[in-house]
Amino acid sequence: MENNWTKVYTTTNPITAEIIKQALVEHDIPAVVMNKQDSSYKAFGVVNILVQPENFDQALAYIIENNLNED
Fold first, then answer.
1. Distance of CA 39 to the CA centre of its chain
2. Which among 22, 23, 40, 42 is least buried, having the fewest CB atoms inside 10 angstroms?
3. What are the pLDDT digits (tens) for 14-55?
4. pTM higher than 0.90
């Protein structure tokens, strides 16, 4: 597996990240979650959703069209 993933979404809520990742995967957009939160203090750090660069535009459009973003 190549290591050229691109960040498409960032949140502080790991549950939101998993929901968005699963939605992308179900629509044939490979995605992974990278949790950068502190393991002791969940208030510090973020959770990123990463996609392959060639899927970035499609993934971002899907997130926006389906109101999956928190903001």
1. 19
2. 40
3. 899 999 999 999 999 999 999 887 666 656 788 999 999 999
4. no
